[in-house]
Fold this sequence. Notes:
Elements: H1 2-25, E1 53-63, E2 73-85, E3 88-99, E4 104-117, E5 124-135, E6 141-152, E7 156-167, E8 176-186, E9 191-200, E10 216-225, E11 232-243, E12 266-276
Antiparallel strand pairs: 1-2, 1-12, 2-3, 3-4, 4-5, 5-6, 6-7, 7-8, 8-9, 9-10, 10-11, 11-12
Amino acid sequence: MKKTFLMLILAGAVLNCAAQKINETTPEIQTGTDAAQPFLFSLNTLTAENPRWNVHYSGSYGERTNGQFGYDGLGQQFGVKGYLGSRFTLYATAAIGFANSGGVTSAEQAEVIRDLVGGKGIAGFRLGAGLGLSRDWSNVGSAISRITASFDQTNWRMAGNLRFEKAFDKSRDKLDFISSFGYQHRVSSVLYLGFEALGQDLEGFWEKDEAEGGAKVMIGPSINLEPNHSKLSFSISGGPVFYATRSQALPSAALREIGSVASGNGYTIRALVNFNLHR
């Protein structure tokens, strides 16, 4: 846990130094926020004013999580996110896991989300809903439904998700629930600081035999750097992972942001680099 916060604080100091250098040459502050993916654990929708198509790479590391991107070890994820028009956003990822004990495997997912409230501009409130499919580390397919909410202003932004997942396997839960929330405040023209929280497998609160080992909670700092006039943006977040409940079931290979904790509490750190194809 201490290692997590020290690493995040160090990353924030480095990004702040970089932001100060950038501000010396580009001091203007834009109105509205147009980050394609400012948060690590909450998905925001795009608008016609946002960058249209983006690709990103994210890496993560977890200890005593037995499942960060499917593993207790290093995870890699590649993704694409784009605006389809008419308030539709496409989001698709492919993840690769490298276990500490050896072995490599992959998992994929794709979703289409539509803003039902707002979505015509960046600023203001947006509420959306979407559907998708995924294949996890054990080759089990799942249907995904996600509700997204976000609020963007000139100097701050927030986003939250509620995700439902139905795995096509009798040994899994009837329905999985995952929620997330993130808040960031602009501290310079290019740097945002805040926090993110994630509640995973929340059905563990009422199901004693929850298939992923029980409900888990993560909360920690969030940093986003968006250099002006650059195609690149950077985000980092993470923190301690705690059990909220425990079940006796062996954790499945379901695709999870903070994995399936096997014993004790652990931590996770995740970083993302986004490349805008249109700037």
